[in-house]
Amino acid sequence: MKRKLLPFLMLFSALVMCSSCLSSNDDSTVYYDDAAITSFKLGTLNQKVVTTNSDQTATTSKTTIDCSGYAFYIDQATREIYNPDSLPYGVDASKVICTISSKNSGTVTMKSLTSDSLRYYSNTDSIDFTQPRQFTVFSNSGTYSRSYTIRVNVHQQQSGVFGWTGLGTDEKLAALTDLKAVTAGDRIFVFGNLNGEARIYSRPTTGTGAFAQVNPNVTLTADASRNVIVMGNVLYLLNDGKLLRTSDAATWTTVGTVSLRQLLGATDSRMYAYATGGGLKSSGDGTTWTDEVLLDDKSMLPTTDQNLCYLPSLTNKNTNQVLLIGNRTVATDAAAMVWGKVEENAGGSENQPWSHYTFNGDNKYPAPHLLNLKVIAYNGGLLAMGGAGQGSSQEKAFAQFYRSVDRGITWHNDSLYMLPAGFASSETSFALTVDSGQFIWIICGGTGQIWRGRLTDLGWKKEDTVFTE
To answer: What is the pLDDT of residues 134-178, one digit of tens each?
Structure first.
């Protein structure tokens, strides 16, 4: 009997030992020391919508918006999490439902707004993100942690709204004729003429500072305002046959003696001018000037109120669409003269010719032939304004802005861009320019009014989306 029982006891002991080993392997848990937030995503949020009625009254309503499509970037180096594309205006950031994922299922906690205490995060929590919040993720080993600052950016201005701010009046500017304004760096410069003598005034483009007179170290000719341009935050001036340059309008240095009739304007790479014998010239440095090729009769070039604007190409790098827009003193002209060319600045590029945009009966929206016509490039298009219609044009003075979104071919009234309420200016003397912050400036001759306005979208900060750890 003992001989028969012994083998069974040995077999049972082996089974127990194997079962114990298998049980030990199944129950073991691996704990990781890594701690990181790997994703942040929003859900559906509440939004307040303000609608402007036809009678200019406002109606407010509430709705919901799916915000899951707004990407949140995680900068692991600075431990910041944010959405570079802000949520629409009116989204309620005080009650946010979000989903947070962590590496190796680490534990995510959230710091209180009123103390240093932490509480566990839950994807069903309604969280107040009206200010940056601190979240801390703990490794599942409990050994390490990493804290992040999370910002939920919401636009504080309604998209697609253009607003003006009046900056008061200035008697010094009111007295000037032949006004022209340019911006270079963080300053705006106003050139004009007072009793046959050139005057320059300047102020910062930000803040509330007043315009102060600038006293140049050279004697300027009376037509200085018609010959000043900006390229690369440097001012250039054609003055008595010499090309001058400066960064502050006070200290001018001579670039060289040039045979030019009038400076017209500049892109980010080249400056353009009228040659003394007619036609156009261009230069990249102000010392060497090249004849420009005209495909059409140069008699169609504008002889007054010239504006040179450029728009970067939407498809090619180092390429601009350059436009010369102005008037002729021809009684039968119903439209302004518009010329254009493609400026290629890449190595090995050819100098492209200029073409005159002919306006015929097929185009019912030509460039406006206005007294003292002013044109600027803005928001991917062109904006024009001016006094009463000239030639055969019947337009009223300062009736509207005219906008071209097809690079100078057609011009339309755009209700988004309206002149400010209370605007008053001399038709023959006013200035229009744009600064680096995308603010439009209007300096009014006769009244001295100063206006500054911007489309809300162009003032929104663009967050970084590429990081180096």
So the answer is: 999 999 888 899 999 999 999 888 888 899 999 999 999 999 999
> Both tokens of residue 293?
């090729």
Helix or strand (DSSP H, E) at 333: none
163's tokens: 């607003």
* The two three-digit tokens of residue 396, written as one number: 């009223």
- pLDDT digit string, tens, across residues 253-275: 999 999 999 999 999 999 999 99
Radius of gyration of the chain (CA): 33
- Provide the sign of the torsion angle of the four alpha carbons 303, 306, 308, 309, taken in this order: negative
Q: Are strands 58-66 and 280-283 parallel, antiparallel or unpaired?
A: unpaired
Amino acid occupying residue 393: S
Distance CA 236, CA 265 (A): 9
Contacts of 74 (CB under 8 A, 6+ apart): 37, 38, 39, 40, 80, 81, 148
> Mean pLDDT, the chain, as a whole number?
90
* DSSP 8-class letter at 366: P
Q: Which residues contact 101 (CB under 8 A, 6 or more apart)?
A: 37, 38, 39, 40
Q: What is the DSSP string of 203-270?
A: EESSSSPPPEE---SSPPPTTGGGSEEEETTEEEEEETTEEEEESSSSS-EEEEE--EEEEEEE-SS-
Strand order in the sheet with 402-404: 374-378, 381-385, 402-404, 412-413
Does the pLDDT of residue 218 top 60, yes or no?
yes
Helices (H), 134-208: 171-174
DSSP 323: E
Which run of H or of E encompasses 429?
none
